[in-house]
Design brief:
The structure holds two protein chains of two kinds.
Chain A: E1 3-7, E2 10-12, E3 18-25, E4 34-39, E5 45-51, E6 58-60, E7 68-73, E8 78-83, E9 92-100, E10 103-107, E11 111-115
Parallel strand pairs in A: 2-11
Antiparallel strand pairs in A: 1-3, 3-8, 4-5, 4-9, 5-6, 7-8, 9-10, 9-11
Chain B: E1 4-7, E2 10-13, E3 19-25, E4 38-43, E5 50-54, E6 58-59, E7 67-72, E8 75-80, E9 89-95, E10 102-103, E11 107-111
Parallel strand pairs in B: 2-11
Antiparallel strand pairs in B: 1-3, 3-8, 4-5, 4-9, 5-6, 7-8, 9-10, 9-11
The chains are: A mainly beta, B mainly beta.
Chain lengths: 117, 112
């Protein structure tokens, strides 16, 4: 069974940093691009970043470029999101997602990041 | 960025009745490989999004056949032939042809 389990969320002050993790199991993690999607409280879904199978290519939404870094450890079947210079607009539930046939067929349960003073 | 526009934003439906949600994209979602990369998700209250439809019209594993997707180019539709109570939640369309990946703003379906 495919499982994605996010962790690392919490309360952080504006300007602070946080590192999110996503533990993957039940599929060949190293064979898939992986993605982070976020959802601000009461709002819709926003794609954040994706990373190629071997980590050689990374793409980001403009609003996080230069602040967030997506990376992965295929030996550990884990996906990460390092978030720096956080602002209140980054407050959201962050999901990791696995692709299949041009869609995200599996999502984790999400981890809540709250940026507040 | 490709803008995905859904309508309606709110959809009250009587159980057993059909429902339809429209999604329009600001650019064509036809990839040069011939596939049209439009997907539909349902986010039930308190849950993560779940995939319903991919490649415009293919039902994801385990999705009831009362759900169907259609469309081409920039104009897409999700139809529910007979709404059930378990279908309540927010429906999103999504495109992955153009970077960044973008979602529609969501359509909230509830039961009358």
């Amino acid at each position: 069974e495919v499982q994605l389990v996010e962790s690392g969320g919490g309360l952080v002050q504006p300007g602070g940093s946080l590192k999110l993790s996503c533990a993957a199991s039940g599929f060949s993690f190293r064979s898939f691009w992986m993605t982070w999607v976020r959802q601000a409280p009461g709002k819709g879904l926003e794609w954040v970043a994706s990373i190629k199978e071997d980590g050689s290519e990374k793409i980001y939404v403009d609003s996080v470029k230069g602040r967030f870094t997506i990376f992965r450890d295929n030996a550990e079947n884990s996906l990460y999101l390092q978030m720096n210079s956080l602002t209140v607009e980054d407050t959201a539930v962050y999901y990791c997602a696995k692709p299949e046939s041009g869609a995200y067929d599996k999502w984790g349960q999400g981890t809540l990041v709250t940026v507040s003073s | 960025d490709v803008v995905m526009t859904q309508s309606p934003l709110s959809l009250p439906v009587t159980p057993g009745e059909p429902a339809s949600i429209s999604c329009r994209s600001s650019q064509s979602l036809l990839h040069r490989n011939g596939y049209t990369y439009l997907a539909w998700y349902l986010q039930k209250p308190g849950q993560s999004p779940q995939l319903l439809i991919y490649l415009t019209s293919y039902r994801a594993s385990g999705v009831p056949d009362r759900f169907s997707g259609s469309g081409s180019g920039t104009d897409f539709t999700l139809k529910i032939s007979r709404v059930e109570a378990e279908d309540v939640g927010v429906y999103y369309c999504m495109q992955v042809v153009h970077t960044p990946v973008t979602f529609g703003q969501g359509t909230r379906l509830d039961i009358k």
